[in-house]
Amino acid sequence: MRTRTALIYLTLCLVLAGYFFYFEVVGRRARTEQEEAARHLFQVDTAQITALQLNRGEATPIYLKKNGHWQIVEPIRSRGDEFAVESLLTTLESLKMEREVAAAAQDLQPYGLDEPILHISFLAAGSRHQLRIGAKAVVGNQYYASSDQENRVVLIAGAKQQSLDKSLSDLRSKEFFTVNSDEVERIELDRGKTELVLIRSDNKLWQAPTAVEVKIKTSKVERFLSRLFRLRAKRFFDNEEDNLALLGLDPAKIRLKISTQEKTETLLIGNSKKDEGAYAKGGELPGVAMVEENLLEELPQTLSDLEDRTLLVFDLAQVQALELVLAGGAARLERNEDTWNWLGDENRKDPENWRVNSLLWNLQELEYLPGDLPRAQSSAKNNVLDLVLFSENDEKLGTFSLIEVPSEKTARGVLRLSKGSEAARAYWLSGESLRELHENAKKLLSPEA
């Protein structure tokens, strides 16, 4: 009897616990989710939005359509800034009211909604939606707003209002080129007096058809292209089409063409304006724009700027050992699969791989300066740095000898290089690259220094 009674009580307890869990825990969670969903002004998915219109007070309305990519249709025709537009749409999708002010306001004027500072209309899955933002609330950083129900007034966070209030300049694309850099097959750079033409061959190497004997360094061309594809318009001038000559754009000071198999895009660069930039026109952007003036300094001046003047070409995997002689001290490093170890010095802590790689990368990037070579100098016993690279079977890849470290004010210095078993030759290198080489070698030998 007692067992039966206990089982009954236990069953009742379990039923009550289940009831409590379902209605208090699960139910409360469901109610919370429903309440949170009710705070959303729109139940839309950004992927379903295909048209967007912004009216910003007295400014000209902005109208955008999506056809694969966002396009501005009015007041100009231009590509949209995909990131800026998608950011605005994400804000719309997640927009919540802070609280409801009036369920059915009879007069919208006190809230600034009779003439909203921002009116956004958008099409999602075939349905038209509206958002109006009016005056700023007296207390707190919040704004009065209404959505599809025009007379329902709510408050939204000020940060949301700022995210939605975008100008034409904010929403239009600022990229001059639309092609991909790896698709570019031809580059033409015309400075008036000098013209540079580069063609990418089937093996992906670049060459100049008018100077095929000059070896072009691929990484230099790729860096040049990378700078171009990062180029952005800082400011737009849509009413300057009649003043191109005054802006140095007709004829242009610099004309740059980039071609793929499918299309050619042209960028014109004109006069510079102090502390503002240079005027530019072309690519896929309408009108005239302003770009950073330092772009002019980054563009190659002649073919020599793109010439491959690498001192020693090697792969990191080739290097199996290296010897350093620095400030009278000598040391040898040997590769042991994925680590480097000092040879014959148990008291010296083995270096971290990245330090060795940093020095090897430094050597890979060393380039001699164009022009005459320095006078040959005999091997000096008091070199500040000697560095020897070895491949398998202890075969020498190259020997670098630095006679002295150029001072900070010295633009260039001399480095001697012996490739394999060849006789050493002297080269002019930039003072900065030689100082960096010496510093990396010092840090490898004495990381704590």
Record the SSE blueprint.
Blueprint: H1 2-39, E1 49-55, E2 62-67, E3 69-74, E4 78-79, H2 82-94, E5 99-102, E6 118-124, E7 127-136, E8 142-146, E9 153-157, H3 158-164, H4 168-171, E10 186-190, E11 195-200, E12 206-207, H5 218-230, E13 235-237, E14 254-259, E15 264-273, E16 277-282, E17 285-291, H6 294-298, E18 321-326, E19 329-336, E20 339-342, H7 353-365, E21 385-390, E22 396-402, E23 412-419, E24 425-430, H8 431-445
Antiparallel strand pairs: 1-2, 1-6, 2-3, 3-4, 5-9, 6-7, 7-8, 8-9, 10-11, 10-14, 11-12, 13-17, 14-15, 15-16, 16-17, 18-19, 18-21, 19-20, 21-22, 22-23, 23-24
Description:
It is a single chain. Strands 4-3-2-1-6-7-8-9-5 form a 9-stranded antiparallel β-sheet. The longest helix has 38 residues, at 2-39. It contains 8 helices and 24 strands. The protein folds into 4 domains: 1-39; 46-171, Dna Ligase, domain 1 (2-Layer Sandwich); 181-306, no CATH class; 316-445, no CATH class. With 449 residues, it is of the alpha+beta class.
